[in-house]
């Protein structure tokens, strides 16, 4: 899935909002490499306060620990960019909010910071519901920093839809 413009992101955010409203649920987001872009896409939708509870921008390692409760052991064993960290970020977003659904994003948008094991463009996601249903995925996006971040926002929104429909993320 390649989302090329903001209109497409807003359309996707609108679909998320409709599904959340229909289920009587609120969403929280926990973002790292996207730096609030997901929250911006969501809050660009008129009426999003009916379904978007809050967003956490936890760019630093310390903020992930202090704000979301990501464990030092997870960070040490798996690193900041890992599905395990994303899962703890999503769980922390739920436990530190009034939302019943959460999405978390952590990755390497570039142009620097990549390694052979975790290259630029690698983004890890997690989606969770308060009832315990959780999904996670790792994607490898191409393009410049903006392209990687834009694709990550789109994938995060699509994953929320998939979670709400209780299916595996369709991130191809």
Describe this structure in words.
- The protein is an alpha/beta fold.
- The chain has a single domain (6-164), classed as CinA-like (Maf protein).
- It is 42% helix and 19% strand.
- The protein has 6 helices and 5 strands, in the order αβαβαααβββα.
- Strands 2-1-3-4-5 form a 5-stranded mixed β-sheet, sandwiched between helices.
Features:
single chain; 172 residues; alpha/beta; Maf protein; 6 helices; 19% strand; disordered C terminus
Short description:
The chain is an alpha/beta fold. It contains 6 helices and 5 strands, in the order αβαβαααβββα.
Helix content: 40-55%
How many beta-strand runs?
5
Termini gap: 6 Å
Q: Write the CATH fold name.
A: Maf protein
What is the helix tally? 6
- Note the main sheet: 5 strands, mixed
The name of the CATH superfamily reads CinA-like
**Average pLDDT over all residues:** 94
- Uncertain runs: 168-172
Biggest sheet, spatial arrangement of strands: 2-1-3-4-5
Secondary structural class = alpha/beta
Any idea what the shape is? Answer: globular
Order of helices and strands: HEHEHHHEEEH
Radius of gyration: 14 Å
Look at the structure and give the CATH class: Alpha Beta
The fraction of residues in strands falls at 15-25%
> What is the CATH architecture annotation?
Alpha-Beta Complex
Question: How many domains, in number, for the residues?
Answer: 1
Layout: helices, strands, pairs:
Elements: H1 6-23, E1 27-31, H2 37-43, E2 52-57, H3 61-68, H4 72-78, H5 83-95, E3 101-107, E4 122-129, E5 134-140, H6 145-164
Parallel strand pairs: 1-2, 1-3
Antiparallel strand pairs: 3-4, 4-5
Helix pairs in contact: 1-6
């Amino acid at each position: 899935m390649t989302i090329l413009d903001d209109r497409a992101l807003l359309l996707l955010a609108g679909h998320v909002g409709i599904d959340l409203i229909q289920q009587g649920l609120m969403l929280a987001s926990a973002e790292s490499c996207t730096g609030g872009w997901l929250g911006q896409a969501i809050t660009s939708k008129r009426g999003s306060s009916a379904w978007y509870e809050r967003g956490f921008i936890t760019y630093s390692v310390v903020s992930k620990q202090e704000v979301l409760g990501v464990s030092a052991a997870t960070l040490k064993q798996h690193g900041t960019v890992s599905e395990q960290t994303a899962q703890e970020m999503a769980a922390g977003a739920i436990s530190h909010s009034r939302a019943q659904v959460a999405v978390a994003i952590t990755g390497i948008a570039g142009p620097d910071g990549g390694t052979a094991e975790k290259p630029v463009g690698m983004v890890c996601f997690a989606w969770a519901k308060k009832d315990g249903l959780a999904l996670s995925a790792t994607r490898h996006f191409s393009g410049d920093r903006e392209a990687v971040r834009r694709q990550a926002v789109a994938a995060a929104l699509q994953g929320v839809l998939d979670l709400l429909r209780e299916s595996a993320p369709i991130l191809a």
